[in-house]
Amino acid sequence: MSPALGTATRTIVTGALRAARSSSLCPGYAMPLAFTAVHGRNYASAATDAAEAIHQNAITHKDPSETSKSASFVQEYEPYCLTTYARPALILSHGKGCYIWDVEGQKYLDFTAGIAVNALGHGDEELAKIYYEQSLKMIHTSNLYYNEWTGPMCKLIIERTRATKGMQSASRVFVANSGTEANEAALKFARKYGKLTPGGGEHKYEVVSFYNSFHGRSMGSLSATPNPKYQKPFAPLVPGFKYATYNDIDGLDVITKNTCAVIIEPIQGEGGVYFATPEFITALRKKCDEVDAVLIFDEIQSGLGRSGYLWAHEAFPAEAQPDVLTMAKALGNGIPIGAVMVSERIAEAIKIGDHGTTFGGNPLATRVGHYVVDRLSTPEFLDEIKRKAEVFRSGLEQLKEKYPSVITEIRGTGLIWGIQLNRDPNPIIDAARQRGLLVISAGNNTVRIVPPLIIKEQEILEGIEILNSSFASV
Fold it and tell me: Which keywords does this Swiss-Prot/TrEMBL entry list (predicted)?
């Protein structure tokens, strides 16, 4: 048994209790102590089992050799694919639950969920039945006609949202195909509203977003993503975008009467798993009200259960809610779909012909979305995420204590976590993959963990033990 998880059998409960009392890691997202106290003995037992299952520092998953099936596949087909990604040579074949297999037969524990997409994991049998049944019946009709599933999905999203402490003004939903398309639509809606609002007009078109954010790669959402790495090769960008500092209340003066919209992530996922403070979000809502600017919450990564709430902004004060909310990722569990939820006052500004989509809202995607929302939004499912969050919190804090010269901070809530390093995270990511765990990077030297929301305690502890082995190896 490794030292980290051997110690876990004695300290995992006290570690979870200590972490739950602290709000410094993610203000507004501290979890109730009941989730940790009730399940303490189970954590310790599972930790022991996970530790004994994995050999310290052993490379169990070698990257494919130059003569492998994987290498032959890449050599044959890579010349025909536009190179926009740097990726390891393994070729993924199939998955079940929280595990993925490559074509060489190697099994990996998935802490990426397709970048926070596969909330219900891989190979969900009920979803497979839905794909099959609906594909035989109808996949696409265009938005020239109604279909049987877009309306019911939109209604369910609105009803489940209103049943939470989240966006109580939620009124209507526009369905798109992806997160960046959802953000593009939200920005268009806000600009239309700005031109029509009293005191608005042609000058009211500016959009404010925040440093360290990520809103997508199409030109409007890219213009709202102030990262030179992403923006510089494609300049000039869409005019009218300004930037402020996340959690800096004094910096909100950049929002003026010419601002039509402010777009913000309640949790900056791609930026490194950083949390907006309740004080900042409340001040932001007030500032938007003062100048009649539309407040857009980008919950593409943080929404639909990822934070332990249906929407991450439920952790904010009741007066700090958005006018528009964008979603995608988990909504289709891998089927491309995105959506924009708006209040009635924003909806009133949008008329027939103002926006559209060919594929968005097709019956296959929206039937899947209806099923996913129905499962993810139950109190029992969300409570389980909160409980599992404390397993992660305690295990990751133990890693920080064991490797203080490498790990500087642990940030997270629900099933979105960032391990802040003082160095390049790629050697850790590579070492984890070579031991059977898939993790990804984010922000500045951060290892990001976003597993399927169905993950079990045993799988969490297995992954933490592999991370322990990975840190020890480098």
Answer: Transferase
CA 357, chain centre distance (Å): 24
Phi, psi dihedrals of residue 461, rounded to the nearest 5°: -70, -35
C-alpha dihedral sign at 137, 359, 158, 355: negative
Q: How many CB atoms lie within 10 A of CB 402?
A: 16
pLDDT digits (tens, 9 = 90+) for 174-211: 999 999 999 999 999 999 999 998 888 899 999 999 99
CATH architecture of the domain formed by 138-377: 3-Layer(aba) Sandwich (3.40)
- Residue listed under structure tokens 């009392």: 21
Give percent of the chain above pLDDT 70: 88
Q: At what angle do helices 457-473 and 3-21 cross, to 10 degrees?
A: 120
Which residue type occupies 12? I
406: nearest Cα among 451, 461, 473, 465: 473
Q: How far is CA 298 from CA 9, 185, 235, 273, 400, in A?
A: 39, 12, 23, 14, 30
Q: What is the pTM of this model?
A: 0.90
Start and end residues for every CATH 3.40.640.10 domain found in the chain: 138-377
Distance CA 429, CA 408 (A): 17
The residue type of 217 is R
Tokens 């499962």 sit on residue: 375
Handedness of CA 22, 425, 264, 249 (dihedral sign): positive
Q: Which two tokens stand for residue 362?
A: 């097709």
Read off the tokens for 419. 């391990």
For residues 216 and 54, the model is more confident at 216
Output the six-digit token pair for 410.
């642990």
User: What kind and span of H or E run contains 298?
Assistant: strand 294-298
Most confident of 15-24, 27-36, 180-189: 180-189
Q: What is the pLDDT of residues 323-358, one digit of tens each?
A: 999 999 999 999 999 999 999 999 999 999 999 999
Q: Which DSSP state fits 313?
A: G
pLDDT in tens, 378-423: 999 999 999 999 999 999 999 999 999 999 999 999 999 999 999 9
